[in-house]
Batch of 2 targets.
Target 1
Amino acid sequence: MRDSGPIGVFDSGIGGLTIARKIRELMPGEDILYVADTGHAPYGDRPDRYILDRSFAVTDFLLSCQVKAVVVACNTATTTCISELRAKYPVPFIGVEPGVKPAVLNSKSGVVGILATSKTLVTDSFAALAKRVSGDIRVEVMPCPELVVLIESLKLSYEETAGLVGKYVHPLLARGADTIVLGCTHYAHLAPVIARVAGPDVSIISTELAVANEVCRRLESQGLTATNSTTGGEEF
Ligand code: DGL
């Protein structure tokens, strides 16, 4: 593996751009190659096999472009198949999972709400994560099947999205959640709307910065940080 290759980043669509943006901020010298698998989005209501096959296909493409690491910028693909990706390919994979731990640490009410795709919320890895980190805090989940389609059609304004966001957020508030996790990278595009719908007393947790920090650490620890001092390139 070479330190001169790009960092590959993929998602079913534009959600992972929120992570790519943070990678760019933290690592201005790195090249980034981003794949939005838009023709096959959304992943969030598909069977495991479909998500695995798409993740393999996109990773094959990224490796054919000599990427030095792959960021699975998708909670659905990470929770469904990151272990299969790690077993099959010889590059480092960095994934993203819902930020249950920071939410648990933040909650005063004792209830945290998780917004995510239907698929993420039924995976064994999400169940294991929630069990491992929740302690005395109750974890309430809310699948949001219609949200990714709305975001992919670039409907991002308060006027266009507040109704649907409220449909998912209000039940979590009614169950006592004072902290809401954006457990799908697409939802970060709606963070201001979700925060406004939830109100000022509710904390919103997203994971882009944590993932970008982890990418930085992994590249450093494996000697893969770009050594050129030029501004990094971007391809989408
Ligand atoms: N952005 C993705 C995630 O974090 C996938 C959404 C979808 O395709 O349903 O889960």
Target 2
Amino acid sequence: DPSPESTFVCPIIIEDDRTGLDTETIRRALRDNLLYIQGKLPELASKNDLYMALAYTIRDRLLQRWLTTQQTYLKKDVRTVCYLSAEFLVGPHLANNLINLGIYEQVQKAVSESGLKLEELIAQEEEPGLGNGGLGRLAACYLDSLSTLEIPAIGYGIRYEFGIFDQEIHDGWQVEITDKWLQYGNPWEIARPEAGVEVKFGGYTESYTDENGNYRSRWIPDYVVKGIPYDTPILGYRVNTANTMRLWKSEACESFDFGRFNRGDYYGAVDNKVHSENISKVLYPNDEPIQGKELRLEQQYFFVSCSLQDMIRIHLHENPSLNSFHQKWSVQLNDTHPSVGVAELMRLLIDVHHFDWDKAWFITQNTFAYTNHTLLPEALEKWPLSIFGRLLPRLMEIIYEINHRFLDKIRIIYPHDDGKISRLSIIDESGEKYVRMAHLACVGSQAINGVAALHTELLKKDVLRNFYELFPEKFSNKTNGVTPRRWIVSSNPRLTFAITEKIGENWIKHLEDLRGLENYVDDGEFRDSWRRIKYDIKADLANYIDKKVGIKVDPSTLFDVQVKRIHEYKRQHLNVLHIVTLYHRLKNNPNLDITPRTFIFGGKAAPGYFMAKLIIKLINSVAEVIDNDPTIGGRLKVVFLPDYNVTFGQRVYPAADLSEQISTAGKEASGTGNMKFSMNGALTIGTLDGANIEIREEVGAENFFLFGLTTEEVYAKKAAGYNPQEYYYHNEELRAVLDLIGSGFFSRGDSSLFRPLVDNLIYDDPYMLLADYQSYIDCQEGVGRAYKDQEHWSRLAILNVARMGKFSSDRSIRQYCEEIWRVQPVKIELPDYIQANA
Ligand code: G1P
């Protein structure tokens, strides 16, 4: 952070112990940190003490890179990308930093002195669960790629004290436990109280005339909250660039109200502190109706205002005015959660920096870009005017003015089309009035993108059609990607080694080089070793499953995996219908020859989402019955692994044979799990939805198990009046399966337990499971047959890995940089006394 008063200029000589990368230095540093930071003697140190000492040892090695990066950016006055996201699901830092620094082996040796294995210390790290799923994890992959590609960037978000809840399973039901990720401290972050900013809430506005006779507005808030930044360095892979993830914690400006204290109101004296700190207290789970949740709007405005004020402060340190703000900052809105930023930047420019409206609007529109992540109408954010106006009165005025000017322009284009005007308006006036956040984002941004080709097409045709008609040039597609550093190198060292042995290590930064593996697909020895590796990874997961949930699974069975948030559109229950179908067949014909399978599920349901929770219960109930049925003889196993998170993902993706990507066509914006599976050699069974379509294009139709209706067919069926009962009555096997579930067979005779789920499918079926059922079952039979021919299966798996180059987040980020952000890489040169990455 720039500090203009600073006159203290001298080269900082850092002891080798803090920067050296050889085993001996790391060993010394580790002992040193154990003693002087953890305050522990080696013989009394717990595993966690050792983890903390190691984390500090590695952080030391990031800091010079990080500070040099920030200094270079300031000196060169670079153009910077700011990724505004209410969620960053970064996952554990330690292993990734070791890989990116290139010191895994040295550290492994240094740690061995403690009598522990490095892997045990890595496992000790509590992951920051600051996200729900795909959206937050995408933000984290993008930070990794931005640093690796040496792009100046800051990730701005919220430092939730409690992240996504931990999940336990009691009697088959999900139970939510508070996530206390900070309880033992977070060695990766650095607090910067000196860079704190203030954010206003509530109150009213008034107009006044300034000293130059200009008419202005001023916001007299009800209360003011302080935002304190906590910075985490994000190091790129084998480069010196370490960008910042800056997360805001809310605090009271004055933590103690002496006035109230002196009046004897002891509790009231800390009231303000409690309220202020609540803002960054807890992450909201997805799929909860949010309209009434004022605190959520407070969170959004809080972090957005803090971040924009921070950018302005940095900008004014290097530039005389904010006239060039949009030339130096490109701000990406990760979904609508930060879209209030459009109005906030207007407020800061007009009220605080005294710009006129038109100039402020020009800067604002040229600063922001917006990524949409969902087609589900219920997930498009809108805030009741009553709440919005009360909490953010000045922002409300500004939004009215933006809307007024916008609609005036529209009236010229569509003079007699009132319907169009009300469809485009930022304010929804059809019933109770709402602010439509997606509309604000569209109007206030220079670019709008979807996250997969189909998704972008559907945005243009459907959800944002009216905006597309108005400004088609703003729309583009940016298919998601994931970072191979975390999702292959860190989570699958065996596969990494096998690949690198054949094609060198360039693929880690240039994933398209994986194509080189195609040369080995006919090499029998290579396929043998491929299978051995997969088996070993599956055996590891089998051990873990046994330890975690006490179920024994056989690594030679087909591992059929579905891990993701539990949601009806993702159709975990379609997967269950397949399992029950197989079970039912085996019961009728115990000698039936089927490919033995282990079905593995993981995922959290929103605490208030009844149907999602019932699906978890159903999976566990089916698992229990099958497990206790001796006639099945281990041919089917069902496992629900609790508490799906990044760490668990890293364990399960490498072990999968089959990846379930079975959402209703047109519902899953992209998916990113689909990419992680396929990169690790799983084959996909999937619908033509989201990025599945592009994965299939890349790997080849013959290497992908496709089933189900297309989006057009889904739309057409809906339009024609979809009736799931037709399927129920005409498909005997389907009926038997649904009846078995409805009968209480899996619920100890309680026929009411799963009734809501079964009835929902028979009478409503909004996600069209019954329409896709037969096609899914047939396709699964093909999977079973294919798996029996292990040679053939290995070929398909190798080809999947070889052709996944497109889905590196490096490719996505390059496209954002070239087509939306227009930013260039900036090389970071370390001072001579710092040892370069190994
Ligand atoms: C959401 C979308 C998903 C997309 C992801 C990142 O993830 O639903 O399709 O891949 O954003 O763009 P979710 O939060 O559902 O996991």
